[in-house]
């Protein structure tokens, strides 16, 4: 599972870098066209929004995997190590349930509904469903990263020294 986790993290990181580079070029084209021609190229604003949504959800998945999300763990740190382990597992289970129910299942339903409705991003000429696909796509990454963290929590007897910087 660790090797798969590292591979998925690398894929998601490189995908995010690519999306960010395209976003930079898009914004430069939009701003440049506004100053040079007096009018912004129409599709640049919607493409920037599209790319930013994907970048935010990819960033959230990467931050989750890297245990970089903001959290307050003062109470959890004050617990006995075994109780701390139980609290971390409970947190992982809640996050997994939310991710699977809301992001993966709900996001997939939303994506399917948008595809069936035929809603389009007018200036780009693509289905709006491609925008919403970022939710279940990155939800799957978060769920897989979560499962890996659950396994890690179960395997580590001394969770205190291993989880420095991590928060719940």
Q: Please, could you describe this protein's structure?
A:
- By secondary structure, this protein is mostly helical.
- It has helices at 2-37, 42-65, 74-77, 81-117, 129-132, 134-155, 159-162; strands at residues 120-121, 126-127.
- Strands 1-2 form a two-stranded antiparallel ribbon.
- β1 and β2 form a beta hairpin.
- α1 (2-37) packs antiparallel against α2, α2 runs parallel beside α6 and α4 (81-117) runs antiparallel to α6 (134-155).
- The longest helix is centred in the middle third of the chain and has 37 residues, at 81-117.
- Residues 159-168 have low confidence and may be disordered.
Descriptors:
elongated, 78% helix, 168 residues, disordered C terminus
Span between termini: 22 Å
Number of self-contained structural domains:
1
* Strand composition percent: under 5%
The ordered H/E elements are HHHHEEHHH
Q: What is the tally of helical segments?
A: 7
How is the largest sheet built, in terms of strand order? 1-2
Average pLDDT metric: 90
Number of strands: 2
What is the makeup of the main sheet? 2 strands, antiparallel
Q: Name the overall outline.
A: elongated
Q: Extract low-pLDDT stretches.
A: 159-168
Helix content: over 70%
Looking at how many chains there are and whether they match, the oligomeric state comes to single chain
Backbone structural class = mainly alpha
User: Which radius of gyration do the C-alpha atoms yield?
Assistant: 20 Å
